[in-house]
Amino acid sequence: MILRPRVVDFSTHFPGPLASRHLSQLGADVIKVENRETGDGNRGTPPFVEGESPFHHFLNAGARSIAIDSRSPAWLRVTEALAGWADVVIVGNRPSTAARLHLDFERLVKVNDDLVYCLITGYGLAGPWSGYPAHGLNPEAYAGTIPLEWLADGRPTPRDDFRATGVTMAGVEAAIGILAALYRRDQGLGAQHVHVSMWESALSWLWRDVVVQLNTGTPWRGNKDIGPRYSTYRTADNRVILVCPTEQHFWERFCDVVGMPEGARSRGDWSSGADRGREFPQEYGEIQQRMATRTLDEWLRLLGDADVPVAPILDWTYAIDSDHARANGVLASIRTDKVEMQIPAIPVSVVSVGAGGPVDAARLAEDHKNKTAAVRSAPKLGQHSDEILAELGLSELTDQLSKAGS
Fold this sequence. Notes:
Elements: E1 6-9, H1 15-25, E2 29-34, H2 54-59, E3 64-67, H3 75-85, E4 88-91, H4 95-100, H5 105-111, E5 116-121, H6 138-143, E6 148-150, E7 156-158, H7 166-189, E8 192-197, H8 198-205, H9 207-216, E9 231-234, E10 240-243, H10 248-258, H11 283-291, H12 296-305, E11 310-312, H13 316-320, H14 323-327, E12 331-335, E13 340-344, H15 361-369, H16 385-391, H17 398-402
Parallel strand pairs: 1-2, 1-4, 2-3, 4-5, 5-8
Antiparallel strand pairs: 6-7, 9-10, 10-11, 12-13
Helix pairs in contact: 1-7, 7-8
């Protein structure tokens, strides 16, 4: 069984590089194959810090880079050598484009009959939309995930705070599929084909909406409609607290701590295990009146001491700069020639604890905190071309790839 998978990433933009970024942090040796003139699409994505894209430094951290033009006479030799070297190949194109670039599964599996091949498409392998280009927010538009607002001049626009889910989830799902495929291959099942589309990934993000609508015929309730016992309230210092004592023992403790009116403690139907208070809309006012008497920190302390589930509504910039974020290694520092950048860590750690014996919880926490310690900074374009060609036994192509336009 392989201990350090070899990954060759031919993809550009977000989903494929995000998959290889996950694999790199988990120990894979990742080679990025990039366009000789422009690199992958993330190098040129604004905004820029000292002329460099933070997207590139996040997505390509830990990878090695070889730069070659797909029109180069050396393209076929290099790509086939890479496929023979690799455990995993990631391609981010429509099947027709992958075939035109000689990166289709049928060709590469002839080079390596144990290959794990991962194809990330916009809309899937079949159906009337499968040939559409997945440009920008297009897959999200087809999935119905884009919330709109109407401007004063009557123009519709996506909300400023909308973040596409399909591009991110496609990368995460691809990484999961690749790991499963590596396991299957190592069980003797041969080459594996992994596929995920951005469109399906965006739809899967709406799983709660989908499963409720399809099976009840009614929309899933939004957060505004869940009930007063699962809602947000303003505190005395004009901050916001999320109250969620929906189980009976939590609700009874909540009523005791905040001083709810007589009879409130016994309100509810607990036969399903929880009651969110939708049958008691007057509780919104009752709870808000009491939340407004103390600060957020006071309520967090009082309700926390009573083991009642509540939480502050924080801005993500506060959360990521917290002592808790530092204790869990949420950020990594990446040094470049020009600047030191902070990037998010991939939020998973895998620790080899050995066979038998107790697990040291402190060690697990420390290892999780340091999960990015071995991640190298993102490569310069073509930084490792000569090194990779030597590994592939293709050193005679070094001069050819170093020429402009090669």
